[in-house]
Amino acid sequence: MASRVVLLGVLFGVLIPVDMVPVKVSAKRKCIYIQLHLRLRAPRGLSFREGDIAYSYVRSAINCPGNACLWPKSIDGFVYVPYLLSPVYDDMDRITIETGMQEISSGTCIKFIPRTHEASFLDIQPRYGCWSFLGQTGGSQTLSLQTPGCMWSGIAAHEFMHALGFVHEQSRSDRDHYVTIVWKNILPEQIHNFRKQATNNLNSPYDYSSVMHYGRYAFSEDGGPTIIPKPDPYIPIGQRDGPSALDLHKINVLYSCGM
C-alpha cells in the first residue's frame, strides 16, 4: 500500500505532510515523502502551521482565548460535530474516514453527525494533502484528507483532533522536558513547524504514544532524526494507528465530558 501511495505521489503530486506517514514506512520512503511535501503550496488564502494546521490570512485559529474555538456542547452532554463527506470519496475511503471518527467518539462525548442544517460543520474534501483548521472556525470548515495518501483511520483521527482544538504533542509548552529537537537536522524552511506553543496541557502527562505526536524523522533534511525522546531515546513516537488513551482523556477534559 505504501509503495502505491509513493508511486501515485510521484506521478500526480500527492502532497502529504511527513508527520502523517505511518511509522512502518521505511526511512528511504520517508525521504520521498519529504520531497513531495516540499512541493506543497497552500491553497490561495491559506497558510500552514506545524505542517498541517491551516489558518487564513484574515483569521488565525492558533490562539483560542476563552475556549472560543471549541465546538459547543448540547444540553444532553454530547458535543455534536456536523460533517459533510465529499462525493468524490469511494466506499472504502468513507469507511476509513468514519472509522477515524468512531475511534474518537467511542471514548469521548464527541459525536460526529452528518450535517443537515447546521451552520458550522466540517467539509471533508480530498484536497491537497492532510490538514485541518484548529478548533471550530465557524461556517463551512474545510478538512482535507487526500485520497489515497491520507487514507488511514489514524491520520483521519489526527486531523479531527486538530479540528477539535489540539495542536501537536511535541508543540506543548513543556516539551523540552521530554524530547530533544535536533535543529540541525531539520529542513531550514520547516523549522517553524517545531516551535513551542503556549498550550493548555490539561494537567495531563506528556504522551509519546499520542496520535498527535510527530514522527522521529519529521521534516528531516538528511534522513537523521529531528525529535529524540528523553531520557530513553528509543521510545517509539509518531504512531498513526489511532488516538491513545491519553488523547481520549484530554478530549474529555477539554470538553468537560464527565467520562
From TrEMBL:
Active-site residues annotated for this sequence: 159
Entry keyword DNA-binding: no
Position of the signal peptide: 1-20
Binding site for Zn(2+): 158, 162, 168
Domain Peptidase M12A: 60-258
Cofactors that this protein relies on: Zn(2+)
InterPro entries tied to this protein: MetalloPept_cat_dom_sf, Peptidase_M12A, Peptidase_Metallo, ZnMP_hatching_enz
Keywords of the record: Disulfide bond, Hydrolase, Metal-binding, Metalloprotease, Protease, Signal, Zinc
GO biological process: proteolysis
Record EC number: 3.4.24.-
Free-text remark on how the cofactor is bound: Binds 1 zinc ion per subunit.
One GO MF term attached to the UniProt entry: metalloendopeptidase activity
SMART domains per record: ZnMc (SM00235)
Listed SUPFAM superfamilies: Metalloproteases ('zincins'), catalytic domain
Protein name, UniProt field: Metalloendopeptidase
Organism: Poecilia mexicana
